[in-house]
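Notes to self after the Tuesday call (sharing in case useful).
The group wants a holo model before anyone commits to mutagenesis around the pocket. I volunteered. Ligand is 6-phosphogluconic acid. Logging inputs and output together so the record is complete.
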Amino acid sequence: MPDTLNLTDHSFTDCHALAKAFAERIAGQLREAIDARGQALIAVSGGSTPKHFFEQLSRQKLDWAKVSVALVDERWVPESSERSNARLVKSMLLQHEATVAQFIPLYANAPTPEAGLPAVKARLAALPFPFDVVILGMGGDGHTASFFPGGDRLSEALDLNSGLLVVPMRAKGAEEPRITFSLPALLQTRALYLHIEGDAKRDVLNEARLGTGKGADYPIRAVLTQPQVPVSIYWCP
Ligand code: 6PG
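Result:
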């Protein structure tokens, strides 16, 4: 699709082929980061889409002990919950070759994200920013990370000048309170990816690209239109 946005499409007819090719590409970038700087920092999304990709990535041979893995966003639930993104990452990504990677959770044992924020920020302060790789997902409502339509702190989270690293978020479309890296924090990355699957999400993404109708208000549009970092889009049906 011709447009003036800084986007590159990688479309696959088979989702397993996508997972494999995507994992090989990300592994290559983690290796390059380790070669250049002695360490690598990656932020991944939760949800259901990345499972095959995580499985493939976990089998890639690289110096995983030098890799820090963070989440783009987290549901405010303990790891014992099926809804926990940390639980997903531990069970699907930090396996096989990747068991020795360092994981930095966005959840702290506190009743609300606001109450947990100091602990989370202290943990993140030790990370070797910028990110080498950030991988976003997208919901059918056009949200990405925890940038939900109608989110109570959406404008702050998307504000490129906010100076905020992480933001608590509540929204009707999110089952529980969330915590999310802000958009400016996620754009502090050497490589930015959007991984989506299915025709319905492709249609939502196309609307967001065009900015017409509902597409103008989808939060993902803030990622697609930002001028700082090119976005590589991985899609399969
Ligand atoms: C989360 C995510 C979120 C996710 C989308 C897509 O915690 O839910 O990080 O931003 O990427 O909701 O989720 P699915 O892959 O489940 O459709």
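Two things stood out.
Residues 45-49, 72-73, 75, 85, 137-139, 144-145 surround 6-phosphogluconic acid (CB under 6 Å).
Strands lie at 7-11, 40-44, 67-71, 73-75, 102-104, 133-136, 166-169, 178-181, 192-197, 231-236.
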